[in-house]
Amino acid sequence: MGSFFCRRLLSVFLLVFLLASPAGAQNDVKKTKGVSLKTSHKFVPKQAKAKKKQYKKARTAKRPSVQELKRKVAEQYNVVAAEVPTELQGKLTCRSAYVMDAKTGKVLYDLSADRPGQPASTIKVLTGLIAIESFTGNEMVRASAYAANMPASKIYLRKGASYQASDLINAVLLASANDASVALAEKLAGSEQAFARLMTKK
What is the rounded CA–CA span in Å between residue 33 and residue 118? Predict the structure, then answer.
């Protein structure tokens, strides 16, 4: 009686298993060396490696040489040997410009170079340099409400929180963070205005 019941139960399990299997599943299963892959995606290592080499070769072939780049720049900006161009080809949108040969120091182009202009984020370079000279890096700098409320770009300092000077210096030089710049300025000179005078003196 018991064996008969077991056989009937096993038959029911097999029937349920066969009915639960999706139609045509056997057609989607590809067997290779005992491993079943239920996917239609094919990855052939040799073909993939060949395609990678082919892509790399094509990309390298399109890349211009340094000499070709120099030639194109010379043609575009009318620069012949060491001659100074009288005017640059194309339309300039900047208010002022200054082009100098780094090796000889010769001025190649000058457009209102002495015209006063806003220093923008270049002022943060000087802020970072002064901070590097003034701090050892381990000092803690407290972020005031004024510093924390600076507009972006910023690293979102929390008002009243303290940060290591080295971290704030990195934020100034790498992320151009306004809030970190003001926090360092207030720590060094007491206020943003006092630090501006310190930078001018520097």
Answer: 71
